[in-house]
Amino acid sequence: MSLRPIATVAVTGLALAALSHPAVATRLAGFLGEAPRRALDTDRLLALAVQHLVLAGTGLALVAGLGIALGILATRRGGAALRPAIDGLAAGAQAVPPVVVVALALPILGFGGPPTLLALVAYGVMPVLRGTVGALETVSREAREAAEAMGLTRRQILLSVELPLAAPGIVETLRTALVLAIATAAVGALAGAATLGTPIVAGLQNQNTVPMLQGACATAALAFLGDAALLGLATLARINRPRT
Amino acid sequence: MRPAAETDGKRAGPGWRGLPAAMKGLPAVMKSLPAAVALAWLAALAAALIHWPLLTMAANRLVPGVPVTGGAALGQVLPAILALSALAAGLLAVSPGRRAGATALALALAAAGLFAWGLGHGAALRMAGQPPAARAGLGAGAWLAAALLGAALGLAVRRCRRPGLGLVVVGLGLVGLGAAGRAGTFDALSLAVEYAARREAVHTALVEHLVLAGGALGLAVPAVILLSLWRRGQDAVGIVIGGVQVVPAVALLGGLVALTGGLLRAVPSLRDLGLSALGPVPAMVGVAAYLLLPLWRGLAAALSAPDPASLDAARAMGLTETQILARLRLPLGGQLLVGALRVATVQAIGLATLGALVGAGGLGRIVFDGMAQFAPDLILLGAVPVVALSLVAERTLSALEDRMRAGLPA
């Protein structure tokens, strides 16, 4: 695949990151007619970004591990019975937006990172699971039967036929999950998690535009850069994107 | 927030392995429930009803409560609920038929009704003689049991294979709960106490929420139609509205508030039109931005639904493009359009919750108030209607979708 789409995503991310720099954001707010107020300095912004990444990264790792493993289980022999349950759960989970999950987890887990992490996992697992099942289903029966006829064991079929053929679909699912993880970590600021959502929420409450713009641009930058990194990794692993 | 699943999983996937050959190609609902799944369901329900806290008794609305489990909360109806549920699960496991489905549906409905009544009654008994500040909240077991009973109801409804039955059951359930609530069955439950104290605020928030979600849809639908009329720019449109999905909603709303503020300073006369930097307009625009992608994809898929041969035939017959649109593309692609509308509606209802962040009101305000006060029941008071609205929208539109799909030539 060509590198152009990745470059576009990465450049968008870098541009947004530049916008979140205190000097640029102050000037931007001035252009919008806001009185220049105290901006977040680079150190604080970076610290928030790192915390944001740690939270979103942990959530993504949990979601990807659980979702893909369960997706593989559901497509094994005997897993077919679980299919209606999976579809039902996925539809149900869709109806509960992440901010509501964060809110509901708050009384149980208290303020800070844990409710955000729970929301991330609760909201992210079903789409990844369903995406993995969908990707594994696109593997043609002929390919499986050919592998079986060649004498491959079930484990070998999974590792060297099904997963490589399903990889592009799984990468697409993980991209969705990554964006979801970064968005949910930002919402987590409402539950007291220190992320890039914190300056946005505080800025909205105090009518302080500069930190709000900084937080918004930095969060969006993180999402675009993460997406570019995932696409880059997929290219390195020679996984072709499906044509949409 | 990107749509978590843009595809719908209702199409039966090809090639599920490990099934007897005769079963392949049958949708999953035609097969009876495996005994192991039925047993696991029953075991989970029993655990939720007997071991998990059904009610939590607290001295006031903010402190954590003392759990009340099993018979202590439900009293005499507990064995009846378990027996009815076991019968329903057994029927669903034994036979895939319609009659068994209908009987199981009746049994599960009876179990759910008894469960709701038992909780309300148990809470009333426990609350008798308590100071007015005391609260009886619903525990984790109650929510788990409700979800499990809901799943069984859903399966039984599908087993009956009657289009629209699901909506009838949901409507019946809501009317039943409403009537029981009016009669005072749930008065002792903390959620009802919270609702009674804020009836007006909840109703206003519900209306605001619907206006926000509806307004966002109202903005997004014409925008998507205009965008797809621009034939040459489809690649650019795809990149831009795909890019919007990557921007977290909290960030987009924050950015929009700043932009609206700047716009108002540049053109102050807009203020007279009722536009303000904090309020429903930026929230609607922000939510609408996320609805563009599913709607745009759905519209493109719907317009290309007829195969090229049919299009050629229509043109050869001398039909104009407008006639082709009205007689060929829309009838054939209608269910795809409804599917896209379903995804967008569910997203709009969920995203509108965040509107409260930028002062647009809606049910999100109740949720955020609850978070600020650390009051679980207040959070639930906002969250339950959001979830209920999304589920109702999802079910209604997917029923419409199924009906349109059924009307298509195979």
End-to-end separation of chain B in angstroms reads: 36 Å
Tally of DSSP helical segments of chain B: 15
Tally of alpha and pi helices of chain A = 10
In CATH's first tier, which class of the largest domain in chain B applies?
Mainly Alpha
User: What's the end-to-end separation of chain A, in Å?
Assistant: 13 Å
The CATH superfamily name of the largest domain in chain B is MetI-like
Biggest sheet architecture of chain A: none
CATH architectural designation of the largest domain in chain B = Orthogonal Bundle
The averaged pLDDT of chain A comes out at 83
Structural class, from secondary structure content of chain A? mainly alpha
Question: Helix content range of the residues of chain A, please?
Answer: over 70%
Q: What overall form of chain A do the CA principal axes indicate?
A: elongated
Strand line-up in the sheet with most strands of chain B: 2-1-3
Largest sheet of chain B: 3 strands, antiparallel
Strand tally of chain B is 3
Number of domains of chain B: 2
Oligomeric organization of the protein chains = heterodimer
The strand count of chain A comes to: 0
Query: In sequence order, what are the helices and strands of chain B, one letter per element?
Result: HEEHHHEHHHHHHHHHHH
